[in-house]
Every structure is written in C-alpha cells, then in structure tokens.
Write a structure and sequence with these properties.
With 214 residues, this protein is an all-beta fold. It has one domain. 2% of the residues lie in helices and 48% in strands. The chain has one helix and 13 strands. The strands form two sheets. Strands 3, 4, 5, 8, 9, 10, 11, 12 and 13 form a nine-stranded antiparallel beta sheet that branches. It is globular. The two termini are 27 Å apart. 23% of the residues are buried. Pfam families: Chromosome_seg, DUF4210. This is Atos-like conserved domain-containing protein. InterPro entries: Atos-like_C, Atos-like_cons_dom, ATOS_Transcription_Regulators.
Length: 214
Amino acid sequence: PLPFLAQIGVLATGPCRASLKCPPHITVPFHAVFYGGEGWSGAPSPYTAMIELPHGADRSKDTTKKPTTGSVTLGNVGAYRIPPKGQVQVVVKNENKTGIKLFLVPYDLTDMPVGTRTFLRQKSWVVTPDVPSIAQQSGRCLPIVEGEGEGEGKSEEKLRYMIQLNFCCPKEGRVFLYGNVRVVFANRTLDGRERVRSEVVWAEPRWSGWRKGK
C-alpha cells in the first residue's frame, strides 16, 4: 500500500445556514493499492482505496450549542456535516502533498427523508479513439478472415476514476457525509489521444433506512 492524503470539503449551492456555506475542510491520510509489476500481465491498474472519515465531537444532541461543521461521530462511524445541496470536493494528494486528482461531485439532497441513507457513485472512463486497422492504414482493401482482426478500428474504454459518497439524514435539516469514501484514481496522466466519459449513479432504491453506527 502507498500513502496518500485526501482533502475533503463542500460548497453549498442552495439556501442554508451561513456555517454550512463552505465549512472547514478535513484532511485524511489513507493508503491505496494497485495491481502491476513483476508477474503482472498488462498495464498497471488504477489505485483503489477506502478513505475512512475521521471521528470528532458529535454535538447534535446538545441543542444549546451550534451544530458542528467539521468532522463528527455518528455512533461508531466518522461523519462530516454538509448542506442539503452543494458540491463535494475531494483532492487526492501524494505523500509530498502534491495534488494528483480532483473529484468534484454535485448533489441535491433537499428531499431526503429523515432517518434514511443513500449513496452516490461517480464513474469516469477513459476512451481511446478508434485505431485504424492495418488495411485502413495502407489504403488497401484486404479480405477479412473470420476470427482475425476482431476489435480493430473500435474505441476502447477503461475505468480510470471512481468515487462513492455515502449520505445520511439522522434528523430534520441535518445531512452528513458519513462512514467512508471509496475512490479509484489513475496512476498516470491522460495522453493527448484519450478523452473521458463520466456518469453519476444513485442508489436504487434511492433511500433506505439508516441506523446510528451503520
């Protein structure tokens, strides 16, 4: 496993209390693994990791104090309070604190029922453009032999980036990023021929029951 840092923050894009407009970021050390090296066939895989959110002082039970805007504890898991609607920002840095990947994940949980949880998964594939076959490159029309040249001239997609965020709403008006953040990120930069295709997938069904500590 290799050491990395994750800087996690959020920016509100809807109405909310001032303390949640841009709450303090949290920095979390984590380790990531990849598959490759001696005895491995093919290119090295992207890094994969699970970032555990830190525990903090959970003041949600104390109504005489302002709600915390940093890391908190919900049962036995760490959490980070966020506005109901906004954009989560996760910066992955190497051990020299150099940023190597920025995840920007917009979300809208304004209709999230109390006592529920959900997750959001953002995936990005790298698409390698069509590679002309030998016949196309030579400008000649050659007969195609069945079983030969399959896949030539077609684009290739590989998962390069992924982030999964877990959300819960234990009380009315309180939404948290909680538990852990799962990430996949590349071990190299894109080259000039590659482009990225992304999609966002929510849990299905959208809401499920939440219990403290789960």
